Amino acid sequence: MAKFRTLDDIGDVRGKRVLVRADLNVPMQDGKVSDDTRLRAAQPTIAELADKGAIVLVLSHFGRPKGEDPMLSLSPISSALAKVLGRTVGFVTECKGPAAEQAVGLMAAGEIAVLENTRFEAGEEKNDPALVAAIAKLGDLYVNDAFSAAHRAHASTEGLAHVLPAYAGRSMQAELEHLEAALGEPERPVAAVVGGAKVSSKLDVLNNLVSKVDHLIIGGGMANTFLAAKGVDVGKSLCEHDLKETALGILAKADAARCTVHLPYDVVVAKEFKANAANRTVNVHEVGADEMILDVGPAAVEALSDALKTCRTLVWNGPLGAFELEPFDAATVALARTAAALTEAGSLVSVAGGGDTVAALNHAGVADSFSFVSTAGGAFLEWMEGKALPGVEALRA
Ligand SMILES: Nc1ncnc2c1ncn2[C@@H]1O[C@H](COP(=O)(O)OP(=O)(O)O)[C@@H](O)[C@H]1O
Ligand SMILES: O=C(OP(=O)(O)O)[C@H](O)COP(=O)(O)O
C-alpha cells in the first residue's frame, strides 16, 4: 500500500471540501436497504474526514440508470447512510452544476452530504472530461473509497483522480491489503464459485480465471447460459443466449487449462419469480418450456460441497440461486455453510465478494466465518485475474 496515498497523507482538511467516492450501490428490497455492508464500509472514511473538519461530499452511482430515473435516486440511501453513521447527512439533488455548487457553498466544516447518482449524468460512464471538471469544481480533494467500483474507468471513479489531489480511503486501503494477504499467493487447489445475474461482465472474467483456478463452480444465471450453450433447454430461465459461443469458448479453455468446471445437473424450477412459488427439483434436461431455473438442486450442491472439501482456497462471487426468494436460497446457504465450516476448521482460506454475495452470506449467517469478505464483486474478480483496476491505478503515488 506504500504505493498509494492514503488518508494518512492527506494533511489538514479543516474547511476543505472533500469529494469521497463511496459505493452506495446497495441491495434494496421493497424500497429499503436490505444489506448495509457497503454503507458500513464507507463509515470509517466519512467519519474520519468529518471529525477532522472536512466538508464531506459523498459521490456514488446507484444501479444502472439510463439517464435520470427517480427510482434510482440516492435520496433514500442517504437517509440509510445517516442511520449507519449516526450523524446528519444532507442530500444534494445534483452531482454537479450551479445548484450543487450553491448547496455545497452553504455547508460548514464537519458536515456531510450525499450528491445525486453520478450515473444520471451521460458523461459518467464515458469518463467525459467536461463532467470530471464540473464535479471537480465542487471539491478541493478527492478520496476514492469504492474498491467495488474500481474496475470502472468512470468520471467519479477514475477521472477525478487526475484533476484533484487523490487519496485511497480506509475501505479501499483495507480491501487491497486484505486481498493481497489472503490471495496474493493462494494455496492450491483453488476453487472459484461464480454465480449471480451479471452474466456478460462475469463471462469476460471467467476467460482469464480458468487458467488460475483448479475448480470453477458455476451457478445462478451464469449456469443457465452455460447449460443452454451445451444444448440444454432452459425454458424461461435468465439466460444470455447470444453469449453461448463465449460460454463454449470458456469451457474449451478450462479443459485445456485442466480446470474442472462444475455445472448443476439437478435444478429447482418454478413458473414465477417470487418467494414460495410452487417449485420442483428436476434434472437439467427436464426443465419445462414455461419454467425458470431459480436454484441449483440438492444433489449438485452435495457434489459441490465434496469438491470444496478437497480445496485449500475459495473465491466466491455471485449467489447460486435467487437467494432473496425462499426456498431458492437453499443451495447458496448450504454451500456457504460448508465453506464457513471448512474455514473455521482451518482447512480453507475463503474470500467472498459482491453486493448480493455479501447479502447472501449474511442471510446464511456465515459472513463472519469467512477469511475475508470484500464489498466488491466484479472488481474483486478482476483483481483476482491480475488485471489493473483503473480506479486503483489512478491513485498510485
Ligand atoms: N437462477 C437465477 N435466476 C435469476 N436470478 C438469479 C438466479 N441466480 C441468482 N440470481 C440473482 O442474481 C443476483 C445477484 O447477482 P450479481 O449482482 O451478479 O451478484 P453480486 O452482486 O454478488 O456480484 C441476485 O439478485 C439473485 O436473485
Ligand atoms: O455492485 C457493484 O458491483 P458487483 O455487483 O460486481 O458487486 C458495483 O457497485 C459496480 O456496479 P456496476 O457493475 O453497475 O458498475
Q: Round the mean pLDDT to the nearest integer and report it.
A: 95
The Rg value, from CA coordinates, equals 21 Å
Residue share in helices?
A: 25-40%
Envelope shape: globular
In a nutshell, what does this entry contain?
The chain is of the alpha/beta class.
Summarize the structure in words.
Monomer. Substrate binds at residues 23-25, 38, 61-64, 119, 152. With 397 residues, this protein is α/β, with parallel strands linked by helices. It has helices spanning 37-51, 75-85, 98-105, 123-126, 129-136, 170-183, 199-209, 220-229, 244-256, 298-309, 330-344, 355-364, 378-385, 390-393, and strands at 17-21, 28-29, 32-33, 55-59, 90-92, 112-115, 141-144, 166-168, 190-194, 215-218, 260-262, 266-270, 279-283, 292-296, 313-317, 349-353, 372-374. It has a 6-stranded parallel sheet, with helices on both faces. A 6-stranded parallel sheet has the order 11-10-9-15-16-17, sandwiched between helices. A hairpin with a 2-residue loop joins β2 and β3. α1 packs across α2 and α10 (298-309) runs parallel beside α11 (330-344). It is globular and about 65 Å long. The mean pLDDT is 95. The site of adenosine-5'-diphosphate (ADP) has 20 residues, from α8, β14 and α12.
Provide the descriptors you would attach to this structure in a database record:
six-stranded parallel sheet; 17% strand; 17 strands; binds adenosine-5'-diphosphate; 397 residues; alpha/beta; globular; nucleotide-binding; binds 1,3-bisphosphoglyceric acid
Outline the fold blueprint.
Layout (H helix, E strand, L loop, with lengths): L16 E5 L6 E2 L2 E2 L3 H15 L3 E5 L15 H11 L4 E3 L5 H8 L6 E4 L7 H4 L2 H8 L4 E4 L21 E3 L1 H14 L6 E5 L4 H11 L5 E4 L1 H10 L14 H13 L3 E3 L3 E5 L8 E5 L8 E5 L1 H12 L3 E5 L12 H15 L4 E5 L1 H10 L7 E3 L3 H8 L4 H4 L4
Parallel strand pairs: 1-4, 1-7, 4-6, 5-6, 7-8, 9-10, 9-15, 10-11, 15-16, 16-17
Antiparallel strand pairs: 2-3, 12-13, 12-14
This protein binds adenosine-5'-diphosphate and 1,3-bisphosphoglyceric acid.
Protein name: Phosphoglycerate kinase
Pfam family, one: PGK
Main location: cytoplasm
